[in-house]
Amino acid sequence: MEKRDVTDYRLPPRGVKIIQELREKRAAYERLMTFVKDVLTKSIKENNLYVNAIEARVKTEESLAGKLERKGNKYSDLLSLTDIVGIRVITCYNDEVDKIAALVGRLFEIDWENSIDKRRMHEIHSFGYSSLHYICRVPKSLYEDPDYPELNKIRFEVQMRSALQHVWAVLDHDTGYKSGFEVPREYQRNLSRLAGMLELIDEQFCVIRAGLSNYRRHVQSLVSSGRFDEVALDGDSFGNYLELRPFDSLNKRIAAINQAEIYETSLFGFLKVFRSLGFTTLGDVEKMIRSCSEDAYHLAAFQLANTDLDIINSSLAVVNLCAVYLLKRGGGVLELTRCLNELNGTSDVNRERAEKMYSRAKKLAFMESQNG
User: Fold this and answer.
1) How far apart are the C-alpha atoms of 281 and 277, rounded to whole Å?
2) What is the C-alpha separation between 343 and 272, in angstroms, rounded?
3) Given this model, what pLDDT does residue 124 score?
4) Which of 51, 257, 263, 286 has the most crowded Cβ, counting Cβ within 10 A?
5) Residue 178 confidence (pLDDT)
6) For residue 276, what pLDDT is reported?
7) Pairing of β 85-91 and β 156-162
8) Which residues 6+ apart lie within 8 Å of 53 measured at CB?
9) What confidence score (pLDDT) does residue 120 get?
10) Distances, alpha carbon 175 to alpha carbons 165, 170, 193, 219, in Å
11) Which pLDDT score is estimated for 72?
């Protein structure tokens, strides 16, 4: 595309000179943009941070001309502008903005005098644009390019804000700043109300996440200390419980019957089985293990008798524990089938397996005592 004549922008001589400078130096600015985005992306990953997006751009001539038309008297040359290169880091949560800011502060030289924290500029009754803006330079100790010696002199802007703050910024820009007219008072009030709602939602997401993190740490502490009766049975607690490998002892006893190897498989699917049994705490699972392990072992021994199986699935112990638990409470083929359906999905195979398991269990002492 053929470039416009710089005089077409109808700017004073100083503005025309700055536009011409950008044309001459654009390659350096684009190199700077690429480096900053790449090093930020790498550092965020290395620090185990997760962000929603990292955006980067070099300001277009048209955008620069518009800025010079509005505020041209502020700038003497291209280097006096701090946002020709703009980087935007959008986090998922508001409290992660400061983590990104700390990372940016370690990587780059910060021009504190020109950096702005828009989050702290609101009065007690005001809501609106919230974002942290750092004006930075790349120190030579981090990077320098002999092809672009001016690169370390160029200041650039890093904007950091949460996803909801970004939503507000886009809406506000589109309805206010970008529209070219003053927003009527009634609509401005509605925009302020919306900003307040987004700010509250942003805050509550952080509160909820912090609460969940505290809950998980508390659960880990209770599980590791063996206080199972105090731990509700849910996905987090059951995952922590499985890390203790509570079914290993029974599995090893069963495997020893045929000197078999144990094939490890995920036992997380038993969470819904235990819930279907009415278990509400990890303590309920522990009570089942204590009261049913011996009979579950004998049931497994009966199943493996006269076979030469040399590999067993690590779920075998749990299946037999659940079966014994149901049978001791008066359950039969129907209850065993429901349990297997809950674990494996509804299938005729589960009914056949339940019938065989029930037939074998009837010959064991714990069933004979019940029937007697």
Assistant:
1) 12
2) 7
3) 40
4) 51
5) 46
6) 94
7) parallel
8) 88, 89, 90
9) 55
10) 15, 9, 15, 47
11) 67
> Would you tell me the crossing angle of helices 282-304 and 235-243 to the nearest 10 degrees?
50
Residue with tokens 């021994």: 301
Q: Which fold has domain 6-205?
A: Beta Polymerase; domain 2 (3.30.460)
Please count the other Cβ atoms lying within 10 Å of the Cβ belonging to residue 326: 22
Instruction: Using DSSP bridges, classify how beta strands 85-91 and 109-110 pair: parallel, antiparallel or unpaired.
Output: unpaired
Q: What is the pLDDT of residue 128?
A: 42
Task: Please name which of 191, 212, 119, 105 lies closest in space to residue 162, comparing C-alpha atoms.
Answer: 119
**What single string gives the DSSP state of each residue in 92-126?**
SSGGGHHHHHHHHHHHSEE-TTT-EEGGG---TT-
Give the N- to C-terminal CA distance of the chain in Å, as an integer: 95
Gyration radius of the chain's alpha carbons: 33
Under DSSP, is residue 164 helix (H, G, I), strand (E, B) or coil?
helix
Residue at token pair 């020893």: 256
Q: Which residue, among 245, 369, 367, has the nearest Cα to 318 in the 3D structure?
A: 245
User: What are the residue ranges of CATH 3.30.460.10 in the chain?
Assistant: 6-205
Q: Give me the average pLDDT of each 10-residue run along the chain (372 residues).
A: 71 89 94 97 94 94 89 86 95 90 95 80 44 92 93 95 81 56 65 75 83 88 92 93 95 92 95 96 96 94 84 94 95 94 92 92 80 54
